[in-house]
Amino acid sequence: SNPQSGANTPAGSPVLPDAAPEPQEPAVIRRADYAPYPWRVPAIRLDFDLGLETTRVEATLTVEPNLDADAAEDIRLDGDGLVLESVHVDGEERTDWRRDGEALIVPLSSGKHTLTIVTRILPSENTQLMGLYASNGMLCTQCEAEGFRRITFFPDRPDVLSVYTVRMEADREAFPVLLSNGNPVEEGLLDGGRHFAEWHDPWPKPSYLFALVAGDLVARTDSFTTMGGREVALGVWVREEDLPRTSHAMESIKRSMNWDEETFGREYDLDRFNIVAVGDFNMGAMENKGLNIFNTKYVLADQETATDADFDAVEGVIGHEYFHNWSGNRITCRDWFQLSLKEGFTVLRDQLFSEDMHGAAVKRIGDVRVLRSVQFPEDSGPFAHPIRPDSYKEISNFYTATVYNKGAEVIRMMRSMAGIEAFRKGSDLYFDRHDGEAATCEDFVKAMEDGAGLDLTQFRRWYEQAGTPQVTAEQRHDGDTVTLVLKQVVPPTPGQPDKAPVPIPLRIALFDREKGEHAGEQLIVLTEAEQEFTFEGFAKPPILSINRGYTAPIALDRDISREDLVFLAAHDDDSFARHEAMQELLLGYLLGDADDEARAAIGTAAQAVLADDALDNEMRAELLTLPPFAYLGERSKIYDPGAMVEKREGLRAWLGHEFAGQFRDYHERLTNLAREEGAQGKQARRMRSLALGYIAAADEAEGARLGLAQYRAAAGMTERQGALAVLAGLDGTEREEALADFYARFADNPLVVDKWFTLQAMALRPNVLDEVGKLAGHEAFTISNPNRVRSLYGAMSGNPVAFHQESGAGYRMIADLILELNMRNPQLAARFVPSLGRWRRVEPGRSAMMRAELERIAAAGTLSRDVAEQVEASLG
Ligand code: ARG
Ligand code: ZN
């Protein structure tokens, strides 16, 4: 018998793992403590006997001492919730193993060994959706970051790379399709209605990239011939009823493969590439080697059920996961502190891909909008962390907008400084130098220095420091000389009180006031806390266009008149900068005193945008889109959500009223174009629904009438959802009719039912919180599906009228949700904490109630590591 653990006896009958592990302070993991694993595991064979209720896993590991690490006499393997059945070393059963918490420790002499471990797992009881779990009768896996330890005992860390051979055995009727990483090697029938399949992945990989899928699935198939002439069989695997919605996904795969060859010189490296769509998924998708697993939301799309934005999101996420094959899989991360090495770089790659597919202007504006409304609040809040964090308790909490989106911005800055060609040399060197390795962010930076010819000594601070740099720009004019005075401050963040200046590349242009033109752009790099740049040949002070294309992820305050902003909003030839000027006018009004002159300036700029025939309708709509509440909250010193809703929606009504004729004209005139495929149809749809929003803001009855007409005549989901989003914010029979029709029409399509929940939860109506409460009791609502939870509560927590309801009921609702999800799905639960964590920045009455809800969660007893870490940081 085993002295260390009564719950797991080595021999005899298997028993369940300890129901509740001893509650103990979760350990802090530190980047500085990295040490290589003492063993290498060059190969692993996995034999699965699959079942929904119980699955048996036999893992055979080839292990040998890691000569680059300190020698060890035991091998320590991670585990989580496993039932251990047996341990064999070199063919002999062993009983001298011991448990340390969830880990398994087996004494092992030096030299090469074969370790065979049999475990049992319970997929249908896996509500965390990490490891092997059941979804709609199928079995699938999610192993990043630490889910593989819920399948078998293993060194579940990204720097242990192994060649995987996987054999799956299952009932043939329930699980006709058996997929894993790499290439199929064998399949066949077995007695008792069972069958098996064996897959082999020749590329050594960390455990987080392992995947398995078993289920009743069908595939859309196609093929792609790589630049080196390798023919790759492509498959998009879905449930049969979803097959008609897979063509866009398949086209997106081929476009991604082609783009990565052309843009980064990256070729695919297996005979197969499969994508599987899963209805229950914690995140967007996962880049498992050769077998990407996706949230259905990022695979399924057709005109009837998906909007233009959904189509673009599918393409973008498919690109993202595909691009990981090189930036993530061929070169992976040494440890999880390096997460941005693969995520920041891959987000940049997917952004550039989408820019190339559909034009850079609108894509860049959208990406910056997300950065500023999600990442900026994170960077100025209690959970602020550098893109390469220094410590964590639960790594799942660090799959953040900072690591992903700010990480992408940091690499984009290198690209801007190096230029596109030199950047490519840097990325080529990186891929070449580190292929097959588990690398660090430092390795990437070094490869960029060597390959692109940059000196990134000071630039490394972008990896070390949290916080959004605050830059101010002032102009002095003397004779013919203009002096641009730039100052930067990186604000203190938790654990980082003192910051040093970072290099900030800024693409600028100086518009000659007389000619209304500039003589060319230039890139300047602000490296000091304060620095001056001079420019000659300006008889009059020029108009400064700065951070064009958003070259640096900073907050900028420039000394500029309203008139000059109106000029830029109407004339700047850089689309981003033009949009930015418009946003500055809007922010000036919304964040300042309600000022008639400020509003009039917005009107002048809006008029120019509405009348500009050279603009496409999507860009026009972008220019007329009001800043999101999350960004307005971020930019407010102390946020009063109630007042902000009134002001922002008041401005919308005013604009709708001022330009009523033009919005109606656009709405009417674009009716036919909006029914067309292609870029112009998409642009028309965007402008049409934006116009409808302004019309309704100024005249509810007219908005309801036109909204219902747009809804009824809609040829696809973009027009239908655009109309319903506006109607959902109104009162009256049009709203009720459209909502009822929408549900009846799409009740059997989960992704569209998600939209139905979201549109109602987003509505800026006074009683929206009661509606959300009712919707939580709707027959279609379930807490066990992450998409459904996000569709209702994710939307609700972003709705200032609902979340910030004066009584505090919105905060209570989110806190209740966090507590309900806490143990069932900790990752999902933890995602809702940051909304409450903003309490310090909200007006005092609401602030106290938000904090009180966090305290209630903290006092509620056993918290998951995920929720505990977030709540602690929020209160800290
Ligand atoms: N690597 C995946 C992606 O970026 C995300 C997986 C996140 N998983 C998690 N459990 N946090 O596409
Ligand atoms: Zn990723």
Kindly list the characteristics that best describe this protein:
single chain, alpha+beta, binds arginine, binds zinc ion
> Major beta sheet, specifics?
8 strands, mixed
**Separation of the first and last Cα atoms:** 45 Å
Class computed from helices, strands and strand pairing: alpha+beta
Overall average pLDDT = 96
Oligomeric description of these chains: single chain
What would your notes on this structure say?
The strands form eight sheets. Strands 6-5-9-3-2-12-15-14 form an eight-stranded mixed beta sheet, with no helix packed on it. Strands 17-18-19-21-20 form a five-stranded mixed beta sheet, covered by helices on one side. A four-stranded antiparallel beta sheet has the order 10-11-16-13, with no helix packed on it. With 876 residues, the chain is an alpha+beta fold. The protein is globular and about 85 Å long. The chain binds arginine (ARG) and zinc ion. The site of zinc ion has 4 residues, from helix 3. Arginine (ARG) binds at residues 144-145, 282-287, 320-321, 343, 396, 399, 827.
